[in-house]
Amino acid sequence: MRNLWIVDFGSQYTQLITRKSRELGYSSEIITYKETKKRFDAGKKPHALVLSGGPQSVFEDENDYSFIFNHEDLPILGVCYGMQLMGRYFEGKVERGTIGEYGHAKIHTTNDHSISNVPNEINVWMSHSDHITELPKDFQLVMESHNGLVAAIKHNSRPILGLQFHPEVEHSEHGKDILNYFLKDVAKLEMDWGANEMLEEAKELVRGVEKSKVLCAFSGGVDSLVAATLSHEVLGENVYCFFVDHGLLRPQDYGHIETLKKETSLNIEVLNVKELFFNKLKGLSDPEDKRKAIGNTFIEVFEQKVHEYEESKGIKFEYLLQGTLYPDVIESISPHEEDGKSVTIKSHHNVGGLPERMNLKLLEPLRYLFKDEVRILGEKLGLKHEWVYRHPFPGPGIGIRVLGEITEERVLKVQKSDQILFEELKDKNLYDSTWQALTVLLPVKTVGVKGDARAYEEVICLRMVNSTDGMTAVWTDMPYKFLTKVSNRITNEVSGVTRVVYDITSKPPGTIEWE
After folding, report:
1. Kind of pairing between the strands at 76-79 and 48-51
2. Residue 275 pLDDT
3. Which of 169, 338, 356, 496 has the smallest C-beta neighbourhood within 10 Å, fewest atoms?
4. Residue ranges of domains in the chain, CATH in brackets
5. 166 is catalytic
6. From CA 194, how far away is CA 128, in angstroms rounded?
7. How far is CA 184 from CA 178, 189, 445, in A?
């Protein structure tokens, strides 16, 4: 059980608290209010607790938090909504906001307070309307915003800190230092999270299925490669990797799989099922319909493989191994939706369980890790740098990079344009300067000129972003000459494309993939 519990009240940033605390070397887990109450009632208690932000008003919250605040020795950090709950409980005054604070705000320390490595004045990210107007009993003001609103409070004798802003987001200057102040100086936690702990925890999940036959949904990306490698170290030849060639792959993927077959000890079998996938996708244009069709067809392929191995080889699979990551789980369906505080952004083909008829249980040793943590595991496992830092590629592949209906001809346009982008990134030594690079075929036509004649053809969009975990991302500012070369090659070498555009949307508001 983790040292740090993060009580999720539905903030879009809650998962970032987990990320930041782990980066600082402290294990943590996100749980619901109901789960928190259940654990306290059972006599369990963390070494420290964080009350997250949330979209609701504290005036609509009728829960009793005395079971948390009655523990005088329990270190507590309240963030935004969490601080307002704290303010109400300790007899401060919280008012509904007539003037909210959203986005950047300038705050400064008060009463000679100081936090190590944090200047007296910083810019932070605010997202609230309710706010504390009178300090709670036995609390002191630590920070206030430029317009005089309470920004941070601290209990005079107990290890309790409240922050009206969000230190977990990149937009908050020195947010990581402020979180570290709580974890190290206020809560006095001991570091217990790093590469060794991550690897041991992931392997411990796999050890729970020892002697079982495991079917691995293998894409060759860092997620499935790390999941398969660490599982193979524990289970040996009981791990069977199946690479599904659904016809929605990039040219670079085929060479990569052949390399892994030659240079790793993994048992990898390639399944050519292009025709099946294209038949299932025929006539579909809605992105959710396409994702679900691809996900269901993956299951159908694996189901067929299960039966084939049972009948012809007498091998009975008990588990399906997937490289599912935390952002996939978060975006598909909140683990806290029992409290009704979150929404689905988009479904992921590898999240949501399996049909009962398959009689397989899911094995997801990376389910609560972020992409950068998985890369750390990959290096710990001795995998090559170029494998570990390969750009992410979604399970549905080009199926969600062809906007509108999928045909082999339209997929080919993305494959060719993506290969050109890949080649130029490698040739100009820019591959590692962006976290993910892709091309998208847009369902529009535009007038152009080719060979002195009018052309009326489709549009390819370039998308390159930098990120650490996929939760947030900013577009990559690529050199002008590089973009020019890529655009010229695509419009000259990819039949049916007459225009290239560059997507400069960050996440949020846009997701990294277009669908």
Report:
1. parallel
2. 96
3. 356
4. 4-186 (3.40.50.880), 195-388 (3.40.50.620), 401-503 (3.30.300.10)
5. yes
6. 33
7. 10, 6, 57
- SS3 at position 499: strand
> Greater confidence, 104 or 33?
33
What CA–CA distance (Å, rounded) separates 123 from 109? 12
Determine the Cα–Cα distance for residues 116 and 179; give it in Å rounded to an integer. 11
Higher-confidence residue of 358 and 487: namely 487
pLDDT on residue 349? 43
Rounded-to-integer distance, Cα 290 and Cα 270, Å? 23
Q: Using the structure block, give the residue that is written with the tokens 């007539």.
A: 98
The residue among 200, 240, 218 whose CA lies nearest residue 365 is 200
pLDDT (tens digit per residue) in 2-12: 789 999 998 87
Amino acid at position 379, single letter: E
Active-site residue 168, yes or no? yes
Q: Among this protein's residues, is 216 annotated catalytic?
A: no
Distance CA 90, CA 93 (A): 9
**Nearest partner of 96 among 131, 69, 44, judged by Cα:** 131
* Each residue's pLDDT tens digit, 420-435: 999 999 999 999 999 9
List, for residues 342-386, the tens digit of each pLDDT value.
Answer: 444 344 444 445 666 677 899 999 988 888 899 999 999 999 999
Q: Give CA separation, 424 vs 253, 277, 415, 466, in Å.
A: 16, 30, 14, 18
Of 47, 166, 246, 256, which is the active-site residue? 166
The pLDDT mean for the chain works out to: 90
**Catalytically annotated residue among 168, 173, 373, 424:** 168
Which is nearest to 86 in space by CA: 172, 185, 177, 7?
Answer: 7
Among 35, 80, 256, 457, the active-site one is 80
Cis peptide leading into residue 509 (ω within 30°): yes
